[in-house]
Every structure is written in structure tokens, then in C-alpha cells.
TrEMBL record:
Cyclic nucleotide-binding domain ranges (all copies): 27-111
Protein name per UniProt: Crp/Fnr family transcriptional regulator
Domain of life according to the entry: Bacteria
InterPro entries linked to this entry: cNMP-bd_dom, cNMP-bd_dom_sf, RmlC-like_jellyroll
Lineage: Bacteria, Pseudomonadati, Bacteroidota, Sphingobacteriia, Sphingobacteriales
Organism: Mucilaginibacter dorajii
Pfam families, A to Z: cNMP_binding
Length: 194
């Protein structure tokens, strides 16, 4: 679960190393579904190489919620914790190398770590960071135009623009691919005046 934090919290390494043997390594092509909407999440996913998107079905149209890249971990948390159907599908959008840690071992690892002060600090940091990210996304959808949201991606997360196919970016911004093309032309035209 927390293997990507080993460098940040070396004190946790002995605990994490015990669970390395239970990680299942997968080399998968583009469009591999790692978790299907409506199914219960049974694994924590760690991305060694590649890109993954989380999306949900809105009346037959896929709405992208988030992108994940190398050295990031994810699952459908509400499904994973509560054994409830996932609200999201998790799918690769590049050929990827991922590791899956089954829920049973995640639970055992957390039980071992729960009394470690560094672990509590780590969980609080990760939770606060994700909460802040999702709040910013939520506010941006209410406050900003699609053009402003695209400009924010360009400024703050250019790797998304460079690696993610345009139709997924359009879905993420809540616009059509045609509208996204217009936005890109407008921004490019604005830059050419300087």
C-alpha cells in the first residue's frame, strides 16, 4: 500500500518489506481495466510505470475524474474500506507495469503499522493532500471556465497534457474534444501575441 513512501519514511521500511512477496506484478496493455465500476475493490494498486485513469459512467458517457502516474498508488477507497460497489472504473491509458496488494495484506500491514508514530503522520499527510486536491478540483469546476481549467493543467500539471490522449483530457475538463481544440487554439493564439 505505502511502498512509494519508503524513501520518505525509512522507519517504515522493515514493515513494508515483509509484504513485498505478496505484491502481484502485472505488465498490462493500454485499456486494461484494473477495477470495474460496480465491483468491490479487492486490491491496492501501485503504478511502477505507465498512466491510469479513474472514471465513472454518466448515462453511457465516461467522465474522467483523475489521472495517476509512476510511483502513485490508488484504489476506490470507499469500496476498498466499506466492501461497497466501486463508483469508479480504474483503467490503464498507457502500457503499464502495476503491482496489486490484496486487501487481506493491506489490512494486516495497517494493523502492524497503526502504533508507529511515523505511520500516523504519513496517513494524515496523504489524507490531507488528497482532500486538498479534490477540494481544489471541486472548486475549480464551479469557479473556473474550461479554458481556465486547461490553463491550470498547462501551468501546474503539464505531464498530463504531454501524456494523456486529448479525448480523456476533454472528458476530465467536462468539454467535448472539439471545444478542447478551440481552447488550445485560443491559448496558442494568445501566446503568439507576446
Amino acid at each position: 500500500m505505502l511502498f512509494h513512501f519508503k524513501d520518505q519514511f525509512p522507519q517504515l521500511k522493515p514493515f513494508l518489506d515483509k509484504y513485498l512477496e505478496f505484491l502481484k506484478r502485472l505488465e498490462v496493455p493500454t485499456k486494461t481495466v484494473l477495477l470495474e465500476e460496480g465491483k468491490v475493490s479487492q486490491n491496492y494498486i501501485y503504478i511502477e510505470k505507465g498512466c491510469v485513469r479513474a472514471f465513472f459512467n454518466n448515462n453511457g458517457e465516461a467522465k474522467t475524474v483523475q489521472f495517476f502516474f509512476e510511483n502513485e498508488g490508488l484504489t476506490s477507497f470507499e469500496s476498498f474500506i466499506n466492501n461497497s460497489p466501486s463508483l469508479l472504473t480504474i483503467e490503464t491509458i498507457e502500457p503499464s507495469v502495476v503491482y496489486l496488494l490484496p486487501k487481506k495484506y493491506v489490512t494486516e500491514l495497517v494493523k502492524e503499522l497503526v502504533n508507529e508514530p511515523e505511520f500516523t503522520q504519513l496517513i494524515l499527510q496523504v489524507s490531507a493532500g488528497r482532500q486538498m486536491h479534490y477540494m481544489n478540483e471541486f472548486f475549480s469546476f464551479i469557479r473556473d471556465t474550461p479554458e481556465q481549467r486547461y490553463q491550470n493543467l498547462l501551468n501546474n500539471r503539464p505531464h498530463i497534457i504531454q501524456r494523456v490522449p486529448q479525448h480523456y483530457i476533454a472528458s476530465y475538463l467536462g468539454v467535448t474534444t472539439v471545444h478542447l481544440s478551440r481552447i488550445k487554439r485560443k491559448i496558442a493564439k494568445g501566446k503568439s501575441h507576446f
